[in-house]
Each structure stands twice: as structure tokens, then as C-alpha cells.
């Protein structure tokens, strides 16, 4: 049981280490899911998801570079 607790703690710490990236990714996926549900073409939704993900990664790296 203690191994399971350690695995859960590790996953939680990975998400909390960069809350900006985690929250941004969840928001992006939610927005794209809403667009798919609204009837936007899956190709456009995929492009939005790709571009949004790249933007989030670049923004997170820039934030980390400024802090330290």
C-alpha cells in the first residue's frame, strides 16, 4: 500500500511543480472539447490544440527561465 501512496504523491508533485502548465493544459483541453461539441471541424480543433500546447510549453519555459 505504501508504494501506491508514493506513486500518487509523485504524480501530484509533478502537477504541482508547474501549476501554470497544468492549469493551462486543462483549460486548453476544455476549450477544445467545447469547440468539438459545438461542431467545429476536428482538423481545426487539432490545430488549435497543437498550437495552444506549443504556446503553453514555450510560456512555461520562459517563466522558468526568468525565475531562475
DSSP E strands, number = 0
- What is the N-to-C order of secondary-structure elements (H for helix, E for strand)? HHH
Count of discrete structural domains: 1
- Mind telling me the C-alpha Rg? 16 Å
Q: What is the mean pLDDT?
A: 89
- Tally of helical runs: 3
**Overall form:** flat
Helix % is over 70%
Q: Structural class of the secondary elements?
A: mainly alpha
Low-confidence stretches: none
Report the biggest beta sheet as strand number plus sense, adding barrel if it closes: none
Short description:
The chain is mainly alpha-helical and 68 residues long.
Walk me through what this model shows.
The chain has one domain (18-67). The protein is built from three helices and no strands. The mean pLDDT is 89. It is mostly helical and 68 residues long.
